Amino acid sequence: MTDTSAAPRLQNARRLTLALIAVSVLFCATGALGAFHFVELFEQEKTAQKSLHEKIQAVMLIQSSVIDLQGFVLGGDSRLAANVSDKASQFQSLQRNHPGDQDFQRMDDAFHIWHQSLAQPMIQKRHEFDTSSLNFSEMGIAYIQGNAPMHERRLEEISTQVLNAAKENLAASQSRISGTLTTAIAVTSALGVAALLLGLLLLKSLRSA
Questions:
Q1: Which range of residues forms the domain containing residue 17?
Q2: Overall domain count for the chain
Q3: What is the pLDDT of residue 170?
Q4: pTM value?
Q5: SS (H, E, C) the chain
Q6: Average of per-residue pLDDT across 125-133
Q7: pLDDT averaged over the chain?
């Protein structure tokens, strides 16, 4: 009778052992895959943060270039004209770091048009004014004919759109990390509880065998 009753318990113990091993392997595999996925998500967030930071830099270069041009046209400080050129070069350096970024390309296109159609001609007009070959009224007319308000409004609109998109992209990356973390905690907790219960059942089965 003893041998007959012990056999089912031993068989049950073997089943519990196999189940415990399976859950343990699944727990380890889930942890490893989760860690790999988290590394990927954090890299995506890091990229999104860098992109936002550099787009903020680009927008600041655009805005300060517009202000420098206005200051040079009104005051004639040659340092401001040099700043416009320097900031265009700095912007190009930033843009080259993001060759496939359509938002950077949009800013670059608008900034290039502003620089070619307004900034360079107005810098030349100011030089002509300084040499008395152009009066102030003529320079003001040239500024208006250059569609300065339109160029400046276009730059502002694109800059706002680009920054909003970059902020949304960063928020989405952070949201994915948060969601994945919640899921990972739930799954690992469930597997941990399952492993604990199986271990207790196995211990009970072995004691009664």
A1: 2-208
A2: 1
A3: 92
A4: 0.74
A5: CHHHHHHHHHHHHHHHHHHHHHHHHHHHHHHHHHHHHHHHHHHHHHHHHHHHHHHHHHHHHHHHHHHHHHHHHHHCCHHHHHHHHHHHHHHHHHHHCCCCCHHHHHHHHHHHHHHHHHHHHHHHHHHHHHCCCCCHHHHHHHHHHCCHHHHHHHHHHHHHHHHHHHHHHHHHHHHHHHHHHHHHHHHHHHHHHHHHHHHHHHHHHHHHC
A6: 86
A7: 85
